[in-house]
Amino acid sequence: MTGTTLAQGKLTPYDNVSLPAGLEEFIVNLENAVDQKDKKFIINHMSANMMNSFGGDGGINEFKEYWNWDSDSTEFWNLMKHILQLDRGKLKQEDVYFIPYVFSEWPETYDPFEHSAITGSNVNVRNKPGLANSQVLGQLTYDIVKVNYEKSYPSFDSPRIKNVNYIGEKLWYYIESLDGKLNGYVYWKYIWSPVNYRLGVTKIEDRWLISFLVEGD
To answer: What CATH architecture applies to the domain 21-106+195-214?
Structure first.
């Protein structure tokens, strides 16, 4: 049985985001570089003071070490592809832009460590963490939800699932709607937290450059 779509606490992306021509061109080129795994483009369009975490010293060399840049198994490409596929927000500062919208548009009303955003329309919420032998309890469309990480799958004391390519800690997130009427499991592709990874690009000397890729707070 499929429940009705809930209609409160939404974080709905904008239908059309108007960006300066130079920034729009940069994002398109960045998307192409990620699709082609173009390492030269990434490094050539990275700020010398690139921020990689809240505890590091920053810089391009730290970025390369952090992301195991010389290895074919770097997770950078998968992460960037996912972030860039999420919808964009508005340009809030003339020289700085953030992706995805879940970070830039997040309402302060909701604790970012306890809540996340559903990032699609009619996203299924299931009674079990999986497609096989699970039932759809209802659907959510761009809702802000509470997340129970202890109930999410896999558990914290379990290793990452081998040969399953997912971004983040969990494959299935256990969520509860804000009105408490719907709870269950949502697949990782359709949920994102404002404290998950986000990308910052900054205009430096008339060039748009990647200035940070961080998670946490």
So the answer is: Roll (3.10)
133: left (phi over 0), alpha (psi -120 to 50) or beta: left
Which three-class secondary structure string do you get for 69-129? CCCCCCCHHHHHHHHHHCCCCCCCECCEEEECHHHHCCCCCCCCCCEEEECCCCEEEECCC
> pLDDT, tens digit, for every residue of 192-213?
999 999 999 999 999 999 999 9
And the tokens for 189? 């592709």
| Residue that the structure tokens 């306890």 belong to | 114
Q: Are 47 and 214 in contact (CB under 8 A)?
A: no
- Assign a CATH topology to domain 115-192: SH3 type barrels. (2.30.30)
Q: Is the pTM of this model over 0.85?
A: yes
Residue ranges covered by each domain of the chain:
21-106+195-214, 115-192
Q: Check pLDDT > 70 for residue 4.
A: no
3-state secondary structure at position 62: helix
Residue 5: is its pLDDT beyond 80?
A: no
Task: Give the up-direction half-sphere exposure of residue 174: CA atoms within 13 A in the CB hemisphere.
Answer: 11
Query: How far, in Å, CA of 128 to CA of 29, rounded?
Result: 40
Q: Which two tokens stand for residue 22?
A: 């130079």
Query: Which one-letter DSSP state was computed for residue 10?
Result: B
Rounded to the nearest angstrom, the gap between the alpha carbon of residue 215 and the centroid of all alpha carbons in its chain is 9
pLDDT in tens, 110-126: 999 999 999 999 999 99
